[in-house]
Amino acid sequence: MSSENSPRETRLSRRDVLRRSAVATIIAGFGLSGVAGTVSAKPKDVIPIDEPTRITESGYYVLTKDLAITNPDATVISIDEGLSDVTIDGQGYSIEGPGNGDRTPFDDFSDTGTSVGISAGSYEEEVLENVTIKNLCVRGFFNGLRLESVRGGAIQNVNIYICDYGTECLQTYDVTVRNCLFKKNNQGFYTTEGGGGLVFHKNRFIGNQTGALLTESVDALFKENYFAYNTSYGVEPVIVDGYRFIDNTFYKNGNDEFGYGIFLDEVSGTVIRGNRFIENLQYGLYIGGGFGNHIEKNIFDKNGDAGIRGGFQDSVISKNTITDNGGEGISLVGTSLDNEISKNVISGNSKDGILFVGVDNNLILKNTIRNNGGDGIELRDSDDNVIRKNIITGNGDLPIRIDDESTGNVVEKNKTDENGDSGNGNYKENGGDNDGDDGICRVDSH
Fold this sequence. Notes:
Layout: H1 14-30, E1 47-49, E2 53-55, E3 59-63, E4 67-68, E5 75-79, E6 84-89, E7 94-96, E8 116-121, E9 128-139, E10 143-148, E11 150-161, E12 165-178, E13 181-183, E14 187-196, E15 199-201, E16 204-206, E17 210-215, E18 221-223, E19 226-228, E20 233-241, E21 244-246, E22 249-251, E23 260-268, E24 271-273, E25 276-278, E26 285-291, E27 294-296, E28 299-301, E29 308-313, E30 316-318, E31 321-323, E32 330-333, E33 340-342, E34 345-347, E35 354-357, E36 363-365, E37 368-370, E38 377-380, E39 386-388, E40 391-393, E41 400-402, E42 410-412, E43 415-417, E44 426-428, E45 435-436, E46 443-445
Parallel strand pairs: 1-3, 2-5, 3-6, 4-7, 5-8, 6-9, 7-9, 8-10, 9-11, 10-12, 11-12, 11-13, 12-14, 12-15, 13-16, 14-17, 15-18, 16-19, 17-20, 18-21, 19-22, 20-23, 21-24, 22-25, 23-26, 24-27, 25-28, 26-29, 27-30, 28-31, 29-32, 30-33, 31-34, 32-35, 33-36, 34-37, 35-38, 36-39, 37-40, 38-41, ...
């Protein structure tokens, strides 16, 4: 892997933070399609913060020094519910909590108690509107940042280290998170209790247990973020709708036992486009239930097991490049139904190019499946699938294998050449009820 994919390990100085803020301001001036939020200029009338503070009125607040606490139950800065238009500009200074010693995400965080770096709003109370937190380092808290019942605003150019929850959001809507670093936290970013419209743009999630864990929320956008060396998952959305993952990189996520680039559980309407899933410990992408998802134009390369695995319905996997993974290129199991797998390049994977286990009524169309270690396509206990117009060549075993528990499958107009055990033929154990086009591709009974 080239050095451009590897994160820098150095701790940013106050000057580094301010330099990044200046660059972000210039970029924001040019605008970014599909990403909300802007960087506002500092007003003339600012309110200094030089000690732990409760904010009770709107305004532009600036840190004038580093702040630190040792009380495990304290909050450094809190913003009352019901306010609007509050900005906290850290000016590159740091807020440090009681758990400031170095540790890994699986270590004990109990010394952080219930401490919070910055708390905004209050759960199920009057909404706090348009809050911006920027140009700041936060380290060693239970919650680095905690947003409750917040609508609108931004978290930008904030570096959050070694917290149990880097940022936790409850019932938070329409907040943009941009140019932030989440590093060595238990959960880098965590949402729960509803919320939606969050935008994550050009952030780095490095060395957390999970980069971002999001539950019961809608319509989030992840664009051009970098997820690397997180010990479980890069991103884990659970019971969410309408999420979009565009042009992100997921690199070497996982520990000695498991790890995925993205782990989606019970999701619908998700778009995953233009991402790079590289060398994650287990799967590049795992989807455990849901429907109406689109997985297109991604790269899945050298992941430890399958490039894509899961069970879902009414979804499309199209125009992806799936190469050199340690398991199958694509592996669908269990509840997969009425999906389309089309126009993918599936090459050089250690096992089958495509594997179905117990899945029905799917279409495998116009894929190029070549040089995989196992079968080009394998169906086990899978019924009423259509395998049509694929190019299947140079695989280590059979071009198409359909077992005797599978029925009603249609195999037609595929082109096979130079495959393993049976050459150009296709293998059907014990003669189940499947249809093959003998002119181009044969289904054999043995």
